[in-house]
């Protein structure tokens, strides 16, 4: 059973990653190209950046699909194991509804919460010197999102005063640590003077859109396939033991 | 909903062995999203190859 779920998560994650790659290629690459063109225009004449590139621009555009595909594979596998642990214990009892709920929660906790504090930036934005500290802060924000989710679920399970009270308790328990982290963690401000605000905004929308497409596609595919498998198993059980 | 019952719970001991896959999966995610050549020993090659993906998946990069 766990193996079935894991294989399902890996394959559907890969597929959803490639779908998200298609979105990123269509809506994100124009912004990446514009940002690189801006960077090149600002560099001193005679400084040829192209010669230093290990991978050509077309190579990087192909690498985009490799990146989103492998990302989907890894995330899909972890998702499947988390899903296997939650199944029948927490959340909706039907396979499809549980898959959609977990995918939606993961998007909010692991993508949206860090994005609000440390939004994605195109190439040419961001100081190479601070890459390590920025990465650590980003990971801390992911951990805050995950911890807040655990706190919210634990809180909701203790509230017995009805579904509305449970929802309010869950949302408050989630938002308190998240807003505290948004407020207390250091802000990163490395957009160069004069960088196009429109380009930055469009890039950030494309980046968030890529993750939204991934999690939507993955949640729907995983839920759909799981529901179909459950129906088939139920049908087989009925045939095997007609009572 | 013809004869569809709630999914059966998978016991934690049965799940435990499969959790060994998690470090492998996280290593793949690390190589895609964060490696700068230190672990992969490919210089910056992996980093550059998947550079656009990193930026568009929203991970910090330079």
From TrEMBL, chain A:
Pfam families membership: CbtA
Segments passing through the bilayer: 62-84, 96-116, 136-155, 167-185, 205-226
Keyword check for Nuclease: no
Domain of life: Bacteria
Coiled-coil annotated residue ranges, if any: none
UniProt keyword list: Membrane, Transmembrane, Transmembrane helix
Protein name, per record: Putative cobalt transporter CbtA
Organism this protein belongs to: Nonomuraea polychroma
Classification of source organism: Bacteria, Bacillati, Actinomycetota, Actinomycetes, Streptosporangiales
TrEMBL record, chain B:
A Pfam family the protein falls into: CbtB
UniProt keyword annotation of Transmembrane present: yes
InterPro entries membership: CbtB_put
Assigned keywords, A-Z: Membrane, Transmembrane, Transmembrane helix
Transmembrane segments: 15-33
UniProt KW Transmembrane keyword: yes
Name of the protein described by the UniProt record: Putative cobalt transporter subunit CbtB
């Amino acid at each position: 059973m766990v193996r079935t779920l894991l294989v399902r998560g890996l394959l559907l994650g890969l597929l959803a990653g490639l779908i998200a790659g298609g979105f990123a290629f269509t809506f994100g690459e124009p912004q990446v190209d514009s940002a690189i063109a801006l960077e090149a225009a600002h560099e001193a004449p005679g400084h040829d950046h192209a010669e230093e590139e290990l991978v050509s621009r077309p190579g990087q555009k192909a690498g985009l699909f490799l990146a989103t595909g492998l990302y989907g594979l890894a995330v899909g596998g972890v998702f499947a194991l988390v899903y296997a642990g939650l199944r029948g214990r927490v959340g909706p009892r039907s396979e499809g509804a549980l898959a959609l709920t977990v995918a939606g929660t993961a998007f909010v906790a692991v993508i949206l919460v860090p994005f609000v504090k440390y939004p994605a930036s195109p190439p040419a934005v961001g100081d190479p010197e601070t890459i390590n500290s920025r990465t650590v802060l980003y990971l801390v924000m992911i951990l805050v999102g995950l911890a807040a989710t655990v706190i919210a679920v634990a809180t909701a399970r203790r509230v017995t005063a009805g579904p509305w009270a449970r929802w309010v308790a869950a949302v408050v328990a989630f938002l308190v640590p998240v807003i505290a982290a948004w407020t207390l963690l250091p802000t990163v401000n490395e957009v160069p003077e004069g960088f196009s605000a429109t380009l930055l905004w469009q890039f950030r929308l494309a980046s968030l859109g890529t993750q939204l497409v991934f999690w939507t596609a993955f949640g729907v595919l995983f839920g759909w396939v799981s529901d179909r498998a459950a129906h088939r198993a139920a049908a087989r059980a009925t045939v095997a033991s007609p009572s | 909903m013809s004869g569809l019952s709630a999914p059966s719970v998978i016991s934690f001991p049965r799940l435990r062995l499969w959790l060994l896959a998690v470090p492998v999966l996280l290593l793949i995610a690390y190589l895609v999203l964060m490696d700068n050549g230190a672990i992969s020993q490919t210089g910056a090659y992996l980093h550059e190859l998947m550079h656009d993906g990193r930026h568009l998946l929203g991970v910090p990069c330079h």
